[in-house]
Structures are given as structure tokens and as C-alpha cells.
Amino acid sequence: MARLSDIIEEFLKSLINKEQGAVEIQRNELANMFNCVPSQINYVISTRFTTDKGYYVESRRGGGGYISIKRINIESAGDYLMHIISSVGDKISQHTCEIFIKNFVDYDIIEEREAKLMKAATSDKVMTDVPLDKRDSARATILKNMLMSLTID
Amino acid sequence: MARLSDIIEEFLKSLINKEQGAVEIQRNELANMFNCVPSQINYVISTRFTTDKGYYVESRRGGGGYISIKRINIESAGDYLMHIISSVGDKISQHTCEIFIKNFVDYDIIEEREAKLMKAATSDKVMTDVPLDKRDSARATILKNMLMSLTID
DNA sequence: CTATTTGACTATCCCTGACTATTATAAATT
DNA sequence: AATTTATAATAGTCAGGGATAGTCAAATAG
Fold first, then answer.
1. Range of A131's domain?
2. Residue A90 — φ and ψ, nearest 5°?
3. Cα–Cα distance between A131 and A120 in angstroms, integer?
């Protein structure tokens, strides 16, 4: 018996296909459709529509709130970028990260200014609120999310 | 999904563009136009046309009252960035952050792609390694550091 | 053990309306 | 004519309600 989360995952994926790569849903509505608690939708999204798997998720609360899921555009992504995203791993040091970013510029994946932004966002300087043992992990998350954002639209 | 406040915001912004940076409206008239209570106009203005976001608002009550909204005149992008950097507090929510970033695009301070990077780097999605009570603080740090990086040649 | 499911609690956003504050103008008073 | 008072026409404030989504940890399933 397929678990409910798998069913919801399939439903969303086929919806994304039908809608050319992007859907906007309402959490409660979807939960209602599948007779589950709303937070299960969060579970499905956080386990199956992650950055690593090629999805970009945004949401908003309050009246008219929504959750939007976008699939990255493989065409515009470029093999190198996709390769990087999948090869960055769960952790990355500041130094390694800077080397990556420099390479992106060399390969004309990003502009100089974009490189500045990326370095600024992944610098140890901004990690003061992150526990020491999680900084390389946080850095990898930020780096990958930034790269992923460039592959959309 | 179409939040009325967003629609009113867009309406005002396009009006401001058309009128070269300044508009004068009447609260009741505008409220009437959008079938909402007058105080919603205050809500829109106080959440979207603040000083920090580059707008200057004046008003007058009584007969012939009005609300005037002016876009701040920016001499240089650098000045504006410095202004923003110093006005972003120690904490910032994801949504407020997105509004800031949207404004940078409106003001031609940054490109669309740069906006994507900044949003990606300050999204709640990347804060999983940051303790909950420190996420807004971490976000503010990242945002300011990115902005700072743009002011340097 | 790991993955899933659940639900109680929290956070955020928008919209509303009752009440308040201010201003201009007309009317009344001096 | 000047001043004061009353009235109408605005705009501002704030707390509350409804509509969403997020988080986390306990319970359950596989």
C-alpha cells in the first residue's frame, strides 16, 4: 500500500507537469483533498521537494496564503551548474565555497556582482548566529539555494 | 490569492511611476475604488510605503484632505544602499526582507537575477541550521553583508 | 530503527470597524 | 471686522477576528 505522502507527492508532481513546471497550492485545501492534517503537506514538501531534488518552494501565510512549488528549468540550468548543485554536498567550508564561486565567474555562469553577493552570503562573517558545528552545513544550504534560484524562470 | 493590499500597492506604484515619482490621493476615494474600508489604505501605506523602503508620505485631514506619497530621490545607488544598511535593524523577517529586495529592483539598484540570489540567501528555507529565535537576526546579517558587498568596487 | 502521521501550539498577514484627531468652512457672537 | 463656535469632511489609530502556513515532538506504521 502506497503511503499517503507518496500519493501526495505523485499528485503534486503530475500537477507540476501539467502546469509547465510551477504550481501554487493552498495547504489546507490540499490537506482536505487527501483527508490529512495540514502539516502533512509540510512533511511531503520538506522531504520530497527539496532544493537538492530540483525544486524551489516559496510560501506565504495569512489570508490568501499559498505554497508555490517550482521545478528548476533543466534547459537553462546548464550541466555545470547542475553538476555543482548536486556535488556541493551537505557541508562546505568558506574557502572551498569561494573557490567554487570564483569558478562560476570563470565559467561565465555568474557575473562579478553576483559573485560578490554569493560570497557575502556565505561568508563566515554572517554565521555568528549559527552554531559553530553547523556553519559549513548552513553555508552549503545557502550556496545551493542561491544556485538553484538562478535556474528558475 | 489576489490580496487586495497587494493590488492597491501595485496600483499606487504604477501611479507613482506614471506621475514621475509623486502622487496625491484621497483616502476615502481610493477605498471606494477598491471597495474596502478606508483604514485599509493606511494599512497598505504603513506596510509598503515606509521611509525605509524609499517613500515619503504626507497627509492632511479635514476638508480637502489628502495623502501624498513621494518616492525618495536617490542621488546614487551607493547612498541608498548605505541608507538601507543602516536602517535594517538587527532582525528582519523573511517577508520584510523580500519587500526590501523587491524595492531594490524597483529602484534599479539590483538586477532580477541578483534579487533571486538575495531572496534565496535570506529565505527561511536556508535557516534550518539556525536556531529558531536567531533566524531573523541571521537573515539581517546576511542581507546587510550582501548589500555591503555591492558598495565595494 | 526509520519514515510517516497527527495534532497542539505558534507565527503571520489581511481586513474591518469603532473610536479619535484634525482641518476647513459656515454660522454665530462680540 | 474680528473672533469664537459649530458642523462637516477628512485622515489616523488600534485592537480584534479570520484565514492561512510553520514548527515540533509524540504516536504509529513498516
1. 74-150
2. -85, -15
3. 18
A47 touches chain B (CB under 8 A): no
CATH label of the domain that carries residue A138: 1.10.1200
**With a 7 Å cutoff on the CB, does B122 touch strand C?**
no
The distance (Å) linking the CA of A46 with the C1' of C7 is 18
Instruction: Report how far residue A25's alpha carbon sits from residue A71's, in angstroms, rounded to the nearest whole number.
Output: 14
- Domain of B108, CATH number, reads 1.10.1200.150
- Domain ends where: B13, B39, B71? B71
Minimal Cα distance from A64: which residue of B?
B1
pLDDT in tens, chain A (153 residues): 469 999 999 999 999 999 988 999 999 999 999 999 999 999 999 999 988 788 989 999 998 899 999 987 655 556 667 777 777 888 898 999 998 898 888 777 888 999 999 999 999 889 988 888 889 989 999 999 898 888 776
Count of the separate structural domains present in chain B: 2
At which of A44, A71, A98 does a domain end?
A: A71
